[in-house]
Amino acid sequence: MSETASTPMARRGLRTLVVLVVVGALVGLAAGLVARPVYTAVTKTFVSSTGSRATLLADQGPYVQQVARSFAEVVTRPVVLEPVIAELGLGASPSALAKRVDARVAQDSVVLEIAVADPSPTRAAAIANALAQQLVRVADRLMPTGADRDGPERVTIVDAASPPSAPSSPNPALDVALGALIGAAVWLLVAAVRTLAAGARRGSSDGPAAPSML
């Protein structure tokens, strides 16, 4: 293909790319505008141990970190969720509430964070704090003291959740960027398909097909 013929094709391809990127960005923006806002509240707890096992260890950090990770798994179990549902009158099943809860312990840390997502910022904070309080009670039952036990491993609330002032999602900037990327990906996919189709039609005797610019 001559340079004269390829220049208009390249321009058409560029225009198509711009159109698809703009359309994708607008679709992403629209999706973000109509999406229901979700707020995320976080309660921070501190896990500690004064038991004989932790005291005898040269470095008790890994032991307490393992305890903290175990407690993080307990947060999304019915033993913690069901009392909170009843206390706050949430009207949700434990499995449904668990999907909105993220309990995690950062690497090399004994701080357990309980994050709750909810359309209401006030309710998100209330659930996060109630989960932390229930975890404190459950931890006391799971790790009782006694002559034959190594406890106590304790959970202490160090930073109670407050109603967030801004939603965690949707994120308009992210939605626009994602929409634009999808538009560009569509352009690349269509261009590749058209190039392959043109090459198949020409056959191997005609040499390689010129790249399609849409």
Automatic annotation (TrEMBL):
InterPro entries: Bact_polysacc_biosynth/exp (IPR050445), LPS_length_determ_N (IPR003856). The chain crosses the membrane at residues 176-197. It is found in: Cell membrane. GO terms for cellular component: plasma membrane. The keyword Hydrolase does not apply. Residues 11-88 form the Polysaccharide chain length determinant N-terminal domain. It comes from the Bacteria. Keywords: Cell membrane, Membrane, Transmembrane, Transmembrane helix. It is a multi-pass membrane protein. Pfam families: Wzz. Its main location: membrane. Belongs to the CpsC/CapA family. This is Polysaccharide chain length determinant N-terminal domain-containing protein. It comes from Amnibacterium setariae.
